[in-house]
Amino acid sequence: RFFYRIFKRKIYKKFLKEIDYIIDIVKREYGIDLTFRKKIYLYTLEIYYLMRKEYEKVIEKINPKIVLFNYKPTEVKALINLICKDKKIPTVNLQHGIISKDLSVEMQTDRDNLDVFPDYLFAFGEILANCPSKIYNENNIKYIGHPYLENKLKIQVERPSFMKEGYKYILIVSQEIIGKEFSEFTSALAKELKDYKEYKIIFKYHPAEYNREYKNLKEDNIIEIKTLEYDIYTLQKYSYIQVGAYSTGLYEGIMFELPTVVINNFYGADSTIETLKFMKKGFYAIKDAKELSNFIKLGKIEKPNKDDIQKIWEKDSYNNLLKEVRKILKF
């Protein structure tokens, strides 16, 4: 990148001009200033320009029959997918997060014009994958389940040393863009439950929040987790209840028969409520910490029905995965 900016300066300036042009359009049309993402957009164009030939060599050498992507829309994955399409190698997107009606904006484009998007989607289940038909042909969405989560349910996981017997742990599943709001909610809940010593609150930072410090969480009944030492599944297995807004982790926690609470005025909560409104038990939408504390104090928290849990996730996901790969490869 350093050398091309010196010796291919015309191309470098062309990239900058195009990015500024797009940023200006978005600002005028939608009132959103994307200038802070300029470096990211430049990096994307540079990756395509500088690395395409190198990745083509890698793909030719490996000669894969199929490529599966763990969903995370990075520049390199998009480039690899583009190369695979040119070489007629089928590509599959493994669902990572919930695709709700209002969270699929990133995919609202014509399928035929989006060469960097995978051919197939291996999804968790029908309830958790509201995909616009513009992106995937209906026959190319395969509901296989969640192999990693299923495996986590089967294996024995030890209780973390800080989660003592005799306490009920309230797990807060924070999100990067609304972490401050979550910290304020958690602080308020801690104050509401300060005289109820059997309850402890675990504030699980989103990985993108690990560099943050929320001073309002320095309470005796709050435990902060901002490390990869304890994955969310371990915390869910030994928690009494989980609280969040739109995290995929909430849906995964339901698999552990964990009562689930959504703060209904938080960003993204409306889509979670819409998705899980069919649940007869174990799912609650609340407005604030006081309402949740009242539920807890009155002992109104119930576990989800197993029948409802089974509607969310496809079962036997590992075999489903193998079956669909065989179908795509026609063997």
| Helix count from the secondary structure assignment | 12
Q: List segments where confidence is low: pLDDT < 50 over at least 5 consecutive residues.
A: 103-111
Distance between the termini: 43 Å
Report the β-strand fraction as a percent range: 5-15%
Order of helices and strands: HHHEHEEEHEHEEHEHEHEHHH
Question: What is the residue-averaged pLDDT?
Answer: 90
Backbone shape? globular
Biggest β-sheet: strands ordered side by side in the sheet: 7-6-5-8-9-10
How many DSSP E strands? Answer: 10
Secondary-structure content class = alpha/beta
Largest sheet: 6 strands, parallel
Q: Approximately how much helix is present in the residues?
A: 40-55%
Radius of gyration (Å)? 23 Å
Overview features:
331 residues, alpha/beta, 10 strands, 41% helix
What's a quick, concise take on this entry?
This protein is α/β, with parallel strands linked by helices and 331 residues long.
